[in-house]
Amino acid sequence: MVNFPNQIRLSSSLLRRLKRHATSASPSLLFTRSFTPEGSRPTIIHKRSLDILHDPWFNKGTAFSMTERDRLDLRGLLPPNVMSTELQIERFMVDLKRLEVQARDGPSDPNALAKWRILNRLHDRNETMYYKVLLAKIEEYAPIVYTPTVGLVCQNYSGLFRRPRGMYFSAEDRGEMMSMVYNWPAEQVDMIVVTDGSRVLGLGDLGVHGIGIAIGKLDLYVAAAGINPQRVLPVMIDVGTNNEKLLKDPLYLGLQQHRLEGDDYISVVDEFMEAVFSRWPHVIVQFEDFQSKWAFKLLQRYRSTYRMFNDDVQGTAGVAIAGLLGAVRAQGRPMIDFPKMKIVVAGAGSAGIGVLNAARKTMARMLGNNEIAFESAKSQFWVVDAMGLITEAREYVDPDALPFARNVKEINRQGLREGASLVEVVKQVKPDVLLGLSAVGGLFSKEVLEALKDSTSTRPAIFAMSNPTKNAECTPEEAFSILGENIIFASGSPFKDVDLGNGRIGHCNQGNNMYLFPGIGLGTLLSGSKIVSDGMLQAAAECLAAYMSEEEVLNGIVYPPISRIRDITQEVAAAVIMEAIEEDLAEGHPNMEAKELRKLSKEEILEYVKKSMWNPDYPTLVYMED
Ligand SMILES: NC(=O)c1ccc[n+]([C@@H]2O[C@H](COP(=O)([O-])OP(=O)(O)OC[C@H]3O[C@@H](n4cnc5c(N)ncnc54)[C@H](O)[C@@H]3O)[C@@H](O)[C@H]2O)c1
Ligand SMILES: O=C(O)C[C@H](O)C(=O)O
Ligand SMILES: [Mg+2]
C-alpha cells in the first residue's frame, strides 16, 4: 500500500470535487486526520476515471465498489458485477490454468488464444505499435483479433479480462446514462460498436462477455478504415443474460439476472442512444450481434433518426450480394442474369433475412424496379430454418420471414411440402446457390452436397457463412472433394485454399461483413450524412461486387484477400460518400464542407478518403500546461 501523510494539503479543485461527491463518499474522507483506524483510512488520489484503472497502484479492477465507481467517475468503465478479491483471484487462476488445457478454436491454430493475449497486452501498452503490427500482418492477425478467435475470447472472457476497454451500460444504470457518457475521456468519438451479447457469432448468448465482439470490430475500423483509435468506443449494453451457465457462474462479469424484455429492454437501449448522441452528435453507431428479435426492431426504430446501421442485417446483406453477383459472373454470365438464380438459404435469422431482403430488391431493380418485379423476384428463394422449408402452411412464421414463405400449392408441384428438409429442398430445387446463415456447423452434410451435384448451374456456389470456424455449414475441403473444382466457395470464417492436386487450387473466399462495415462507417462519417440510407448500403455492395476483376472472378475469386482490406475499404467509403451526395444527404465533415464535397470528382473523393485515414505513425509529442 502507498502511505500518505495524515495531513494533506488539498488543492482547491480537489476540495471542490470531494465536496461534490460528499454524498456518496464516506464522511471521513475529508477529515483523514481524525481517529480512523490504520488500514481503513482512505487513500487520497489525484486521478479520476480511466487514469485510475490504468495505474497499477490504485487499480482494483472489478473490485471497485459501486460507491467508489460513482465517486471516482468510473461508472460504465467496468463490467457491472462488483467482485470480491477472492473471486478476482479465482478468475485469474482459471485463466492461468487454462494454459494447461490447450486453448484452440478448430484445428487451424492451437495457439490462437495465447497470440490474442500477447496482442492484447501490446494494445494496452502501445496503441500505435499494436495497429502497426496488425496492419503489417493483417492476414495473420485478423483471425486472432477478429473472427474466429474473438469468439473464443468472448467464451473465455471472465479469465481473459484484464484492463477494461470500452463502456458498459447496464440495466442498473437506468436514469444515469446521460451523465455516465461523460466518464469516457475522449472529447470526440466517431464510431461506436454496440452489442447486447445476445447472439455472439454462432455461439449464442454470452451476456456481458460479448464486449469482445465490439472490440474486435473496432480493431478493423482502425486497421481497415483508418478511424483514429482514440475516437472509437466499444459498448456493451448489459440487460442480463439468458445463458443459464453464466447466470450460475460466480466468475461471470455481468448482471446475473435474466434479460430484460419488452418495453424495459427498449427503454435501456433508447436511453443509451440518447446519451451517446447527446454527447457526440456526429457519432455513428453500429449495432452488432443482437438476437434477431431485437435486431430488426431496433433498426426500424432508429434508422431514420440516428446515424446507425446493423452490421449483421445490412453489412452481411451487402457482402452476400457482392458474392452472389460474383458467382453469376464466374459462370461467364452478365450480372443482369442474377434474377434467374435459384437460391436456397439455410437460416432465417437477422443475417439470413437481411440477405434475402437485399437479394430480392437487387433482383427487382434488375427486372424493372416495379411492384411486379418485386413480387416475382421472391419466387427465386427457398428458405429453410430449424423447422425445415418455410411455407404459408406453417402455423406461425416470424413476420420478417413471412414474405419468403412459399405458397403451398406451388411447392407441392415442386415435390416439396411445409417443413421439408434441406436435403429434400436441394434435391428438388437443384439450386444455383446454397447459402448458409444457420449457425449450425456441418449442416451442409455429405448428403446435401451430393444433392447439389444435380444443380442446374454450370458453376454452383456454396456460401457457408456462419461463424466461427466450427459453425461453418461445411468446410472447403468437404465442398471441393464432393463437388469438384468448378464450384464457387465462400465461408464466413477464414479457411485455407484447398490443394486439389496437379497444381489445381480450390479457392476459399472469406464472405464476411468485414469487407463492408468499415467502408460504410467511414463513408458515412466523411460525408456527414445524418442517416445510413438504403442507397448508401447498395452503393457499398455494388462497389465490392465490381472490385474483383473478370480474371479473378473466372478463377473463382469473388472477394478480395484480406491483405487488400484497406484498399477496398477506401473504395467502399468513396462509393458511400458519392451516394450520400447524390441523395442530398451529405452535410460535410470538419475536414470538408458539404459544398466543397459536392464539387469533388470521384478521384478527388478517393483522395479525400485516403487523406482522412489515420495511420499508425508515432506523432512528435510536446508538453504544454493545461
Ligand atoms: N459471414 C458473415 O459476414 C456473417 C454475418 C452475420 C452473421 N453471420 C453468422 O450467421 C449465423 C446466424 O446469424 P443470425 O444472426 O442470423 O442468427 P439467428 O440465431 O438469428 O438465426 C439462425 C437461423 O438459423 C436457423 N436454423 C437453426 N438450425 C437450423 C437448421 N438445422 N437448418 C436450417 N436453419 C437452421 C434458425 O431457425 C434461425 O432462423 C451466425 O453463425 C453468425 O455468425 C455471418
Ligand atoms: O463477426 C463476424 O465475423 C461476422 C458477423 O458479424 C457475425 O456475427 O458472424
Ligand atoms: Mg456480427
From TrEMBL:
The active site is at Y146, K217. SUPFAM superfamilies: Aminoacid dehydrogenase-like, N-terminal domain (SSF53223), NAD(P)-binding Rossmann-fold domains (SSF51735). PROSITE patterns: MALIC_ENZYMES (PS00331). Its cofactor is Mn(2+); Mg(2+). It holds the Pfam family malic. Divalent metal cations. Prefers magnesium or manganese. GO terms for cellular component: mitochondrion. This is Malic enzyme. It comes from Senna tora.
